[in-house]
């Protein structure tokens, strides 16, 4: 493979992934084969992301999405419908996710199954009791358990993202219940009063998500197996939490503090470069962009609007620079970092091979 191209490596990765799914070789063996092939080449494709394999994937995903939409409408009105739709979604997951390995509809099902379980449980409890006592905590735990069960059954990487959101939501519900916020119906002023506690919960979840993502990444530094996709979704989740929470701790009240925002995203960019995860900085930038627009909605005028535009311009320019010079910037960054065996746990920089 001395003249291997990007397409050659794509084909190799596809064959290795299929071999792992068929049980012919283990994920560790697949990573070893890919490492051997790439060690002889200077060109390397990284951070694979797959959302669908063809138009039929999107076609089926549309159908599952419509079923989910109908469920969201009907279950609050008639909880018994959930008793029908839950086994329908599980049956579809057995066919679509476990047997046919269709990506796009599986993403929808990873949301549909725990959401339908949660809505059905809430509908059976009744509107008057949903916010009473420990009921919110029990319902949150039921939804989280169904999301975790989906991952354990189908090993779909995206379901880790759903389970991560469920974990954060459950912790928020537990905290809000202990503070009496749930009983107040999530009054906005009451919730804002405890925003700092919520931010610290977000930081804790973000750190836990990042550590878990790295646990997947170091087992597949060349990103050729399912582990790489698990790491991708957890990095997206952790980056959003780790970028949003520090800004919440700054207690921004309608202002656009450009320097703190840029400092947070610059830190995220350095981390992303070291671990070679564009998804990490991408999620962070998207989160900051959403924060900026939300602040504009609160009534930005004059200088505030100018600061908001400046923030967006800096973010956009930074993303372009990183996107065009990722490998070169990463190589220069690694020259500033100490050497050691820790490098073998991460994707190699250009011109460097794994030991």
Question: Secondary-structure blueprint of this entry?
Answer:
Blueprint: H1 6-21, H2 27-39, H3 55-74, H4 80-99, H5 103-125, H6 135-154, H7 157-178, H8 188-193, H9 195-217, H10 226-249, H11 258-275, H12 278-297, H13 303-336
Helix pairs in contact: 1-2, 3-5, 4-5, 5-6, 6-7, 7-9, 7-10, 9-10, 10-11, 10-12, 11-12, 11-13, 12-13
Structure, explained:
By secondary structure, the chain is mostly helical. Helices cover 73% and strands 0% of the residues. The protein has helices spanning 6-21, 27-39, 55-74, 80-99, 103-125, 135-154, 157-178, 188-193, 195-217, 226-249, 258-275, 278-297, 303-336. The longest helix is centred in the C-terminal third of the chain and has 34 residues, at 303-336. It is globular. It starts with 5 loop residues before the first helix and ends in a 19-residue tail after the last helix.
Question: What's the short version?
Answer:
The chain is mainly α and 355 residues long.
Which structural traits does this protein have?
mainly alpha, single chain, 355 residues, 13 helices, globular, 73% helix
Task: Report how far the terminal alpha carbons are from each other.
Answer: 20 Å
**DSSP helical segment count:** 13
Spans of 5+ residues with little confidence (pLDDT < 50)?
none
Average pLDDT rating: 80
Percent range for β-strand residues: under 5%
- How would you describe the shape? globular
Order of helices and strands: HHHHHHHHHHHHH
């Amino acid at each position: 493979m001395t003249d291997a191209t990007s397409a050659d490596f794509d084909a190799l990765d596809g064959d290795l992934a299929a071999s792992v799914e068929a049980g012919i070789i283990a994920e560790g063996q697949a990573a070893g084969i890919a490492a051997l092939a790439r060690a002889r080449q200077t060109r390397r494709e990284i951070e694979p992301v797959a959302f669908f394999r063809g138009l039929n994937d999107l076609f089926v995903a549309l159908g599952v999405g419509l079923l989910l939409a109908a469920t969201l409408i009907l279950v609050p009105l008639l909880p018994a419908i959930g008793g029908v739709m839950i086994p329908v979604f599980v049956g579809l997951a057995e066919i679509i996710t476990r047997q046919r390995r269709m990506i796009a509809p599986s993403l929808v099902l990873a949301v549909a199954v725990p959401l339908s379980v949660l809505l059905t449980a809430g509908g059976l409890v009744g509107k008057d009791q949903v916010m009473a006592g420990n009921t919110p905590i029990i319902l949150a735990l039921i939804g989280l358990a169904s999301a975790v069960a989906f991952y354990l059954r189908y090993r779909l990487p995206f379901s880790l993202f759903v389970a991560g959101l469920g974990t954060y939501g459950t912790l928020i519900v537990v905290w809000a219940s202990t503070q009496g916020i749930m009983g107040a119906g999530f009054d906005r002023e009451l919730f804002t009063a405890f925003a700092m506690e919520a931010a610290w919960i977000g930081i804790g979840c973000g750190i836990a998500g990042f550590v878990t993502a790295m646990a997947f990444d170091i087992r597949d530094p060349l990103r050729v197996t399912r582990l790489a996709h698990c790491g991708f979704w957890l990095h997206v989740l952790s980056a959003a939490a780790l970028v949003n929470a520090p800004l919440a701790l700054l207690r921004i009240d309608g202002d656009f503090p450009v320097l703190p925002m840029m400092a947070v995203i610059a830190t995220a960019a350095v981390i992303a470069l070291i671990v070679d995860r564009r998804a990490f900085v991408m999620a962070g930038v998207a989160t900051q962009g959403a924060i900026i627009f939300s602040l504009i909605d609160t009534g930005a005028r004059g200088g505030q609007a100018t600061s908001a535009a400046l923030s967006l311009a800096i973010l956009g320019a930074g993303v372009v620079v990183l996107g065009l010079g990722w490998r070169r910037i990463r190589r220069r960054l690694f020259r500033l970092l100490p050497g050691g065996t820790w490098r073998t746990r991460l994707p190699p920089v250009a011109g460097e091979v794994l030991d």
